[in-house]
């Protein structure tokens, strides 16, 4: 098991109150594609960040178990965490603009990502970087190598982020809303790219999104979060058999191109969903 | 009711709307779809009077409108944006935000109209003395719609009004827009990158790419795949592909 999360709880304390944002999440990830879906604020990002120990400093975390490839994340020292972050696990966020260095060429950033993990000479690293750019299906990798981040589109930026994350041959890719800022055509290409790379390299993928149909198309399994809990976990192929009223509500309230609905069903939130 | 003919907009040397024409009958809704940068928002901004560097012909109710608009125009035509947070003044209470259009247009009965506007968008009366940051995203978009409607316009220009919202909130806002159109006989132009959203609300749809409206078709033809331009077919197949739940 690559990732083992048992009873994860994340709380924020203020002088007057405690807000529990994640309330007992349990998840396992192996060499597979797991999707986490749920509305904004349901605790998806915090769950993923807990795994990398990248939580806000005011967050209080507890878990019965929180391990990455056998390493206890709650107890690991900072050096062990550095080996996990950006090496054994790659983290891809919504907007590549904030993750790429604006004053460094793309080629140099990918080359440095490679050398940090693999060492080797400049020439070798440059060729490896160009190969990585080609692997994320950038058509003219040698030309793109010399560009700056502001000279490329959002979709291209996201490909470059993926290339950098792949440099150290990670075991797990965590993608938090990686395509929410992209157009439908580009979104489909990026997701297909991640899907292919993950299967070719035998990695695990944790794909976080608010888009349930999208996630079910690109993952093997889907965990549905509501108010800090996983309320249902399904094989992606069984989405139409979802039992939890929240999951069903999420699917029903979408307008559809092929099946017109005169009026959209709305979600009637039940207090009982909070208790699970 | 709305007649747009050969609309062109340029920023410096860059022409981003290249001769767009369409008509929307009164009480009807027209949708504009296309990928980001295709010029959808620029068309709406020219129509709404937010951008006056355009050429071509725009008429509303048979009356040609020029680049500069008078107050009567802004009473007739209102716009709602994607990000309700950015479009609501952060230091003004909802009460103040809703009063402003009434004061600008010299409309009386402020008290009663604000109460009614909040009820109409299904917001509790208590929201009135709160600030935008004290509301949820869906509540803020309801306030933006209430503000757009309070001076009783005939036309609403909607730019990605549900794109920043969770799907459950999107459903509520789309139902609200459908109900208001029915009750008030409003005319809508709705811009969105989401084909299902546009087809849900609009019987006719225009497809934009690179500043041109390359196809206009009925929502039924879009649903049924009776498209003529390859870009329409591409957008449709992506949308349909994701819709099918395994
Ligand atoms: N630093 C923080 N301080 C207080 N509350 C926070 C903080 N970060 C996140 N939260 C709260 O935790 C909840 C879950 O957040 P998040 O995991 O980002 O949700 P999601 O990714 O599902 O949209 C939200 O209600 C959010 O407001
Ligand atoms: N104020 C502006 N100045 C310069 N270029 C602009 C401005 N507004 C929009 N553009 C450009 O016009 C094109 C169309 O933009 P827009 O109408 O916002 O597209 P859409 O709404 O379809 O995403 C884009 O290339 C955009 O960069
Ligand atoms: Mg998040
Ligand atoms: Mg736009």
Labels describing this entry:
heterodimer, A: 276 residues, alpha/beta, six-stranded mixed beta sheet, five-stranded antiparallel beta sheet, B: 246 residues, Rossmann fold, four-stranded antiparallel beta sheet, 10 helices, 10 strands, 40% helix, 25% strand, binds adenosine-5'-diphosphate, binds magnesium ion, ATP binding (chain A)
Map the helices and strands:
The complex is a heterodimer of chains A (276) and B (246).
Chain A: E1 3-13, E2 18-29, E3 33-37, H1 44-52, E4 59-62, E5 65-68, E6 71-72, H2 78-84, E7 89-92, H3 106-118, H4 122-135, H5 141-145, H6 154-166, E8 172-176, H7 184-200, E9 204-209, H8 212-218, E10 221-226, E11 229-235, H9 245-252, H10 272-275
Parallel strand pairs in A: 3-9, 3-10, 7-8, 8-9
Antiparallel strand pairs in A: 1-2, 1-4, 1-5, 5-6, 10-11
Helix pairs in contact in A: 3-4, 3-6, 4-6, 6-7
Chain B: E1 2-11, E2 14-24, E3 29-33, H1 40-48, E4 54-60, E5 63-64, H2 71-76, E6 77-80, H3 84-87, H4 94-104, H5 110-120, H6 137-149, E7 155-159, H7 167-184, E8 187-191, H8 195-201, E9 204-209, E10 212-218, H9 219-224, H10 230-243
Parallel strand pairs in B: 3-8, 3-9, 6-7, 7-8
Antiparallel strand pairs in B: 1-2, 1-4, 4-5, 9-10
Helix pairs in contact in B: 4-6
The complex binds adenosine-5'-diphosphate (2 copies) and magnesium ion (2 copies).
Structure description:
Chain B: Keywords: ATP-binding, Cell inner membrane, Cell membrane, Membrane, Nucleotide-binding, Translocase, Transport. Chain B: Its main location: membrane. Chain B: Belongs to the ABC transporter superfamily. Glutathione importer (TC 3.A.1.5.11) family. The complex is a heterodimer of chains A (about 280) and B (about 250). Helix content of chain A is about 35%, strand content about 25%. Chain A is built from ten helices and eleven strands. Chain A has a six-stranded mixed β-sheet, sandwiched between helices. In chain A, strands 1, 2, 4, 5 and 6 form a five-stranded antiparallel β-sheet that branches. In chain A, helix 6 packs parallel to helix 7. The model of chain A has no long low-confidence stretch (mean pLDDT about 90). Chain B has one domain: Rossmann fold (3-Layer(aba) Sandwich). A six-stranded mixed β-sheet of chain B has the order 6-7-8-3-9-10, sandwiched between helices. Chain B has a four-stranded antiparallel β-sheet with strand order 2-1-4-5, covered by helices on one side. In chain B, strand 7, helix 7 and strand 8 form a beta-alpha-beta unit. In chain B, helix 4 packs parallel to helix 6. Chains A and B meet through helix 7, helix 8 and helix 9 of A and helix 7, helix 8 and helix 10 of B.
């Amino acid at each position: 098991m690559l990732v083992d999360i048992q009873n994860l709880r994340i709380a924020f304390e203020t002088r007057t109150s405690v807000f529990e944002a994640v309330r007992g999440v349990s998840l396992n990830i192996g060499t597979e594609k797991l999707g986490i879906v749920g509305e904004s604020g349901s605790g998806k990002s915090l769950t993923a960040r807990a795994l990398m120990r990248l939580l806000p400093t005011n967050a209080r975390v507890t878990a019965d178990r929180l391990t990455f490839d056998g390493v206890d994340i709650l107890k690991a020292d900072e050096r062990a965490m550095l080996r996990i972050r950006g090496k054994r696990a790659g983290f891809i966020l919504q907007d590549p603009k904030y993750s790429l260095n604006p004053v460094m060429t793309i080629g140099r950033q990918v080359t440095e990502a490679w050398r940090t993990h693999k060492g080797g000479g400049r020439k070798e690293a440059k060729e490896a970087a160009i190969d990585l750019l080609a692997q994320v299906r950038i058509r003219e990798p040698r030309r793109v190598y010399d560009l700056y981040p502001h000279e490329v589109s959002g979709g291209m930026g996201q490909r470059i982020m993926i290339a950098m994350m792949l440099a150290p041959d990670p075991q797990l890719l965590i993608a938090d809303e990686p395509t929410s800022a992209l157009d439908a055509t580009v979104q489909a290409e990026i997701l297909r790219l991640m899907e292919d790379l993950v299967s070719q390299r035998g990695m695990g993928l944790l794909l976080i999104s608010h888009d349930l149909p999208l996630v079910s198309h690109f993952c093997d399994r889907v965990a549905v979060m509501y108010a800090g809990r996983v309320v249902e976990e399904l094989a992606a192929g069984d989405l139409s058999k979802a039992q939890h009223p929240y999951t069903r509500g999420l699917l029903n309230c979408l307008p559809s191109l092929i099946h017109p609905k005169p009026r959209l069903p709305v979600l009637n939130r039940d207090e009982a969903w909070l208790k699970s | 009711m709305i007649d747009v003919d050969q609309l062109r907009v340029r920023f410096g040397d860059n022409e981003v709307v290249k001769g767009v024409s369409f008509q929307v009958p009164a009480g009807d809704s027209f949708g504009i779809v296309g990928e980001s940068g295709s010029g959808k928002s620029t068309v709406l901004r020219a129509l709404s009077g937010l951008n006056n560097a355009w050429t071509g012909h725009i008429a509303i109710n048979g009356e040609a409108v020029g680049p500069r608009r008078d107050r009567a125009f802004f009473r007739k035509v209102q716009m709602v944006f994607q990000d309700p947070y950015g479009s609501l003044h952060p230091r003004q209470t909802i009460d103040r935000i809703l009063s402003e259009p009434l004061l600008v247009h010299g409309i009386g009965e402020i008290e009663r109209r604000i109460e009614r506007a909040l009820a109409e968008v299904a917001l509790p009366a208590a929201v009135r003395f709160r600030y935008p940051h004290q509301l949820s995203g869906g509540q803020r978009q309801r306030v933006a719609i209430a503000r757009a409607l309070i001076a009783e316009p005939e036309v609403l220009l909607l730019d990605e009004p549900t794109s920043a919202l969770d799907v459950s909130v999107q459903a509520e806002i789309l139902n609200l827009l459908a109900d208001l159109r029915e009750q008030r006989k409003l005319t809508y132009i709705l811009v969105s990158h989401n084909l299902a959203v546009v087809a849900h609300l609009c019987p006719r749809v225009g497809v934009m790419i690179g500043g041109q409206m390359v196809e206009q078709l009925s929502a039924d033809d879009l649903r049924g795949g009776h498209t003529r331009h390859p870009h329409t077919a591409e957008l449709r197949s992506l949308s349909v592909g994701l819709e099918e739940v395994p």
